[in-house]
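Subject: Sanity check before I submit

Could someone independently write out the structure tokens for this chain? I want to compare against mine line by line before I put it in a report. The sequence has 309 residues.
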Amino acid sequence: MKLDDNFRQIMEVIPDAALVVDRRGHIVFANRLLHEMFGYPPEALCGCSLERLVPPESHSRHDAAVAGFFAQMRHRPMGRGLQFRGLRADGETFPVAIMLSQAHLDGEDHAMAFVRDHTHQQAAEDRIRHELEQQRAMALTDPLTGLGNRRAFDLELNEELRELRNQGRQFAIGFIDLDDFKQVNDRFGHELGDRVLRELAQLIREACRSTDLVARIGGDEFATLHPNASQEDALQVLERVRLQFLEHLRDKDWPVTVSMGVCACDDPGTEYHQEAILAAADQAMYEAKQRGKNQIRLARLETRRAANA
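---
Independent answer below. Compare away.
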């Protein structure tokens, strides 16, 4: 197709890579910047299928976008943006942003595409996304032990309550408190106290399943959340923690043990409240302390049937 010289000149001086395609998806014109962006010599793309500039895995999506544009071009606003992967002559793929506009040339409808290389923008977006993910992780992580913190535990507990209501999936939580931890700090200093906390955190993590959440929710208090687990399942995990911690202490002069409380939520028809669950597990843990420490007690959770049960 013979294009007007003025049109060609305008397309060559605009600051964007640009091309013109017909309804069959054939390139009838591509400016110098477009050829340079995709790594082709001047004029090499004219007459080629537009698919040459698109990775094979994106052909169907790209063809649908072109067909959709021509089908509705009379009603489509100018400058509609699309995001695609481009394919350079050397086989490298890269992100591109495409702005489409209609053009009536030589008596036929065509599409003009203005293409921008978004490699640097995507890299910047990926960097920002990574930084935000890191910040979110830090906001949910206890810096001393690397476990989740109280906020992380509360969020996961809320999610488990939703799963119980909607899917009937039971769960249990455990509260773990170091007995006589103050004596460690007083006798040996806070540096050793921090070491005790880190080592207990590691023991708890190793005793739990990969699907369980372990969090440090206070100075010397830890919590575990066990999705799709019964009271007995949680008891077995915490008993393993208790025994392994005792074994860990055999050659150490640390005057500490652990007291624990377990609270199970297993009835979808019961109206459980997060505050009540936490309070029940906490109370069971303190009962363990009052009864001699170094043991596990089961929570007595006051509940009522849900209105729609």
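---
OP: Matches mine. For the report I'm noting this point. Residues 27 and 45 are 7 Å apart (CA to CA).
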